[in-house]
Amino acid sequence: MTIRIRRRVSPWTLFLGVAAVSCAVLIFMALNKPLPTYLVAKRDLVAGELIVSEDVESVALDLGPLADRYASALSEGKAVRSAIGAGELIPLSRLGSQFLDNQTAVRLIPSTQPSASVIQGSFVSVWQVVEVAGGFEPQQLVDRAEVAAVKYGEGLFAEEIPEVELLLGKEQAMLVITALAADFEVFVLPTK
Fold first, then answer.
1. C-alpha angle 9/11/13, rounded to 5°?
2. Within a domain: residue 17?
3. Could you give the CA distance from residue 123 to residue 102 in angstroms, rounded to a whole number?
4. How far is the C-alpha of 164 from the C-alpha of 47, rounded, in Å?
5. Is-contact 75 53, C-beta < 8 A?
6. Which end of the chain is more exposed for a tag (fewer CB within 10 A), N or C?
7. pLDDT at 157 over 80
8. Containing H/E element for 12?
9. Count of domains forming the chain
10. pTM of this prediction?
11. Final residue of a domain: which of 72, 95, 118?
12. Which part of the chain is the SAF domain (predicted)?
């Protein structure tokens, strides 16, 4: 008579086997879960401009807790409230109506070449120089305005000084337009 001794599987071995299989399944499911998509600007978007589908592309990203701050779908009739550079995610806080209340855009050619730091999305102050008894006097027209766009001319004989488009309040716009109409020297200076 032979006695067979059957070896039992220990509970720890069984537990470790089940845990390993469960971890493998969870990792497989996590890696195959599709990432949410968010909108990214294909080109520089100017403040006040309506966004159309050709201006954006969808990119799959995991933004974690920041996900609710960025656009994942394009809404009809939405415009950019402030400049968004090409390749940037589109924040929901920068989308809205074409202009904020009491806001407009003014394009001007400054009297001198603006600083290299004057780019789309930066902030500038606007100054004029007027003639007074005994010389010239600088006067600040606009304390702080966002640059919506900087446009250089095209072609061989294009101007070296670019047109600078600014987002201004209506009162500020009136001051700048008055200075331009009076043919004063107008300067655009970078500010914070």
1. 70
2. no
3. 18
4. 13
5. no
6. N
7. no
8. helix 11-32
9. 2
10. 0.59
11. 95
12. 36-96
